[in-house]
Give the backbone structure.
Amino acid sequence: MEAFRITGGARLAGDVRVTGAKNSVLKLMAAALLAEGTTTLREVPDILDVEYMAELLRRLGCGVERDPQAHTVRIAVPAEPSHQADYDLVRKLRASINVLGPLVARCGQAEVALPGGDNIGSRGLDMHVMGLERLGATVHSEHGFLIATRGDRLQGTTIWLDFPSVGATENLLMAAVLAKGTTVIDNAAREPEIVDICRMLQAMGARIDGVASSTLEIEGVDELRPVDHTTVADRLVAGTWAVGAVMTLGDVTIRNARAEHLEIALDKLVTAGAVVDVLEDGFRVQAFDRPRAVDVVTLPYPGFPTDLQPQFIALNSIAHGAAMVTENLFEARFRFVNEMVRLGADVRTDGHHAMVRGRARLSGAPVEAADIRAGAGLVLAGLVAEGATTVYEPHHVDRGYEGFVEDLARLGADVTRVPA
Ligand code: EPU
């Protein structure tokens, strides 16, 4: 049992480098199942979720070798992987559901434990199921498992998603690449992480048109080959550093980051008063005065990312003025507001809106991280709170941020891991 202990008041300054995106690499690891042989992934972050996904792939019969220092993972996929993902792993890693599409496409059968809800909401799977059924799979649930089977081959079809779900787009894409004929996924999600999966699948031999648009057209092929692929940089980790720089009136250069994947978020920071310079291999964020409050509305990409919403609540809580933050993706993501209030923030929620009135100071207190991004938001708040803040349950943060505390300390923050 550990906690993060932060003493507020330091300014973040210096360089920090981000690795590949968690929300990409977990799916790239699942995509490896589509081809027999050894796939190599690079820029893999050394985080807990990658280990959980590695464990799941091992249970499916793959050999998985991780080199955390080199940030690589090698996945040796057998001719016939097994097809069952048990609850003990799925409950730790919701993204386990991403093996559903590849397994049913490649093995003809997939049994994945139902993930259930989590700390950010109920998170349905209806679009995953509807899409697989349209591709010709038979899907039902039994004894807590979602079971999908197919006949000879999945069949290309047209799928309209009610909502551009990231997980459903990925599962259906990874199923359609081996289907017979053409599949069109309309109203598809187009997050940079989905573009990354498309690029890897194309290198494996898949035929995909409309990459980065909301209509993906996939011409199924008989077989895919293993590849060597470098994961896209983590825009959410980069965005978290950017917000930290602004809140602490700091000067942080974020290397290996893609400013074009954070357009709205960086624009909001400029509105808040920051100076953002785009560099060849990243961007630099500086702030000189107390930030101004900025309204935020979360939406699927290219809208403002829900995964930066808690960090922007933290920023608004110390800004000049008041801002409305609207959360459209995950109903329970405002739960963390109660913890912000413990730090002295003035935040009121009503349904999916939060009104944040900036205060001149927050005051350090013990708080609890309920999920990855809430944890990141609380750490940022702790950096500017007077006195000491202890963030309990920091394993949530470690699921998504490699060496967060160590990087913060290098940038000048007074933060350590302590026994809880
Ligand atoms: N939804 C349904 N039915 C479905 C699929 C989704 O109702 O069949 C709903 C969900 O309940 C949710 C909304 O649609 O309310 C968005 O879900 P989506 O499928 O887009 O998200 P996801 O695939 O479950 C990924 C990321 C999240 C990120 C969201 C949105 C991974 C492993 N997770 O989740 O990341 O917030 O997309 O961008 O890629 C995080 O990293 O902290 C995180 C939670």
